[in-house]
Amino acid sequence: MRRNIVSDGAGQLKYEIREIVEVAKHLSAMGLEITFENIGDPVEKGEIVPEWIKEKVLGLAACDSSYRYVDTQGFPETREFLARIINDRGGCQVTMDDIIFFNGLGDAVAKLFGFLKREARVIGPTPAYSTLSSAEASHSGYEHLTYELDPDKAWMPDIDDLENKIRYNPSIAGILLINPDNPTGAVYPASLLKKMISLAEEYDLFIICDETYVHIVYDDNEKVHLSQVIGDVPGIALRSISKEYPWPGARCGWLEVFNKEKDGEFKRYIRSLVDAKRLEVCSTSLPQMSIPQVYSDDRYLIHLKNRNRIFSQRAKEAFDIFSSTKGIKVNLPRGAFYMTILFETGVLTNRQTLPIENQDIKAYIETIVQDVPPDKRFIYYLLGGRGICAVPLTGFCSDRQGFRVTLLETDDNKRRGTWKTLKQSIEEYLAV
């Protein structure tokens, strides 16, 4: 090309959660049966969407109005409904104009960082959710800026580390957090959220909080919405129906914007997101229209409570299996539906392997493990030798060694069998 047409941030677009699938598909074509533990799709793993939710969606699909355009920011009745829910919680008050719908949170995240001034950085957690970390890195053209989540403190953010990085990097304009967290399953208490918000207030920053899993919180763990604690700080909550109904294929997500009138620059930034959405006309109509009907049904709270009970039981089941394994560290998940398994420092080497019977698969794995991080080497051998597809922790913008699994498998025997095979594989791998 006469000119270089590649964005400076193109090299930062990494999504290990799906990239590992390409390796799995190659192995599947070679005859290996794969157990996918890489992606958070409840439906793919066997969860049945409640019939009453399906009936509401079917009813809307029969209405001509669900086939038309809606307002640029989203279906007015749904935005009014969501604004009432936010206001009823107490805390920051909003109007329907503070709700903006997108075609899934992937679309929302692309806009959030795509229309942020390139020199304005948003610091996020490590381990990080790949969509968020890659989008921030790509917009800037540099590696994602991160603060540490501490595995010795149930994966809580290291507030001292966060403040030091904010203090000495004036390019930081915002703080990103995920609550409940993906990939660790941590749930942040109000006291910790308030500390992070205080930092944003002190250094004149805004907050982005991914609340995709806010209704997937187990047992007596504290569920806190950003709107309840944000005070006067400008902020954005990311929400979705993907993991709740669950309906990941709906691609229906939205932003809840707080305190945009209290900072002129933040208000203009939010305006740019709406302007960008206007160029696309609007987001998909039908999923938005379903939200008031589903959320206001008494059965929805029962649905959420039943799911949380199930995920809590699976989290404890997984913790019981892995917690006695030497060479790794695990924390009991408190929300979302993931568990991070962390290798202890120094236990991984570039000589460890797992036996692979199929010689063609063995040759392929031995080729691709060259020059990869140690945890990814384990994941490749796990995939080739045991047919289990998980995601290395270094794929979550992290220097720590480990991997993430899901709590989604609905077949009890298969789920327990997979975790026991994982445990045995870790022990066998570390024994080499």
Question: Can you characterise this structure?
Answer:
With 432 residues, the protein is α/β, with parallel strands linked by helices. It has 14 helices and 14 strands. An eight-stranded mixed β-sheet has the order 2-9-8-7-6-3-4-5, with helices on both faces. Strand 6, helix 7 and strand 7 form a beta-alpha-beta unit. The radius of gyration is 22 Å and the shape is globular. The chain starts with 15 loop residues before the first helix and ends with a helix.
Comma- or semicolon-separated keywords:
8-stranded mixed β-sheet, 4-stranded antiparallel β-sheet, 14 helices, Aspartate Aminotransferase, domain 2, Aspartate Aminotransferase, domain 1, 432 residues, alpha/beta
**pLDDT averaged over residues:** 93
- Shape, per Cα inertia axes: globular
CATH fold group of the largest domain: Aspartate Aminotransferase, domain 2
Q: Give the name of the CATH superfamily of the largest domain.
A: Type I PLP-dependent aspartate aminotransferase-like (Major domain)
Give a count of the beta strands, DSSP E runs of length 2 or more: 14
Structural class: alpha/beta
Low-confidence stretches: 9-13
Which strand order spans the largest sheet, edge to edge or round the barrel? 2-9-8-7-6-3-4-5
Total domains: 2
Largest sheet: 8 strands, mixed
**Strand content of the residues, in percent?**
5-15%
**Name of the level-1 CATH class of the largest domain:** Alpha Beta
Distance between the termini: 50 Å
One letter per element, helices H and strands E, the order comes to HEHHEHEHEEHEHEHEEHHHEEHHEEEH
Supply the CATH architecture of the largest domain. Answer: 3-Layer(aba) Sandwich
Helical residue percent?
40-55%
Number of DSSP helical runs:
14
User: How many whole angstroms does the radius of gyration measure?
Assistant: 22 Å
